[in-house]
Amino acid sequence: MTQSLILSPHRYPSFLGEDISNTSLEGARFVILPVPYEKTTSYKKGTEEGPRAFLKASSQLELWDEELKKETWKAGICTLAPFSSEETAETFFPKLQARVKELTAYRDKKLLIIGGEHSLTQATVPPYAELYPQLSVLHFDAHADLREEYEGTPYNHACALYPASKLCPVVQVGIRSVASEELHRVNSGRVKTFFYHENPKSEKLIPKVLQSLTRDVYISIDLDGFDPAVIPGVGTPQPGGFSWEDSLKLFRAVIQKKNVVAIDLMELCPLKDTEISEFTAAKLAYRLMGYLSAGQATHKKFLARNHFKGPRKKSPK
Known about the structure:
Layout: E1 30-35, H1 50-58, E2 64-65, E3 70-71, E4 77-79, H2 89-103, E5 110-115, H3 121-124, H4 126-131, E6 135-140, H5 162-167, E7 170-175, E8 191-195, H6 202-212, E9 216-222, H7 244-257, E10 259-266, H8 276-294, H9 296-305
Helix pairs in contact: 1-8, 6-7, 7-8
C-alpha cells in the first residue's frame, strides 16, 4: 500500500473534520494532498506549517455554502496522508511528481494540493502536462516566479513557474513584483502576464484571461496573490492584490468555462494570535470545490467524450 493512498493519520486533521471528510479515495470526488514542505522561503519561514493549520481551520467552516446554496462535502472529500521529506529538492521533487502522477490515474476526481512553499508546483504540474496536451496554467500570485535559479538552486520558490513555462502556456494574474533577471520572460514565449496595477478588477480581466487559457487548466494559487487584508499570513507578502470577491469571480469564471484538472494552494504561513489566514484559505478551497462540483455534469460529459471511465486501478482496501 502506498502512502499517498492512505487517509491522513490522527496527527494531521482531515478537511472539515474526521466525521465529514473520511471518504475513501474511490468514493471521493475531491482529493486533498497536504505537502508540508519548506526549504527555500527567503523572507518569512513557516509555510511547512501551512497544511496542518489549513486542515485544522477547515473544521470551523459551515458545511452549507452560502453562495452556492448547497453542502459541497456530500460529493465526497478524501484527505490523504501528508507527503513531505527532509530530503533535498533534487531527491524529493521527483518523488512528489511520481505521487501526483499516481493520483492522475483517478480522472473522475479533482486533486487539491496544499503547500508548503510554491516551489512544489515544479513537481505537480508535469504529470498534468503529460496527461493533457492542451494544458495551460493559471498562475495567481503577487510574484512572477520566473527565475531560472535563485540563491544557488533552481528549486527555489522564486522559480516556481519557470519549469511550467517550458511545458505549457502560463497565464499570470495579480503580479506586482518582478525581478530584473526574470523580466525578459514576462509576456514572452508561453507566458502571458497581467500586472495587477493594470488589471485590478476582475470584470475586465476575466475575458482576457479566458482568451489566453487553453481548454484544460491547472490552477496554481500563491495566497499572496490576495490583498494582505484578506490573507496576511503568507511567506512573501506584497501590498495590493485581489479582494476576496474579485478573486472568486475570476476562479468561478475559469472553472465554468474551462476544464480545470487540478488546483494547488501554496505559501500559507500561519501567524501567531490569529487564524484568519488559514480559515480563509480553507474557505477558498471549499468554495473552489463547490464551483467544480457545480460543473460536475459538464465534467462527466468531458470524460465520456474522451473515453475516460474513472480510475485505471482499484484503490487499496
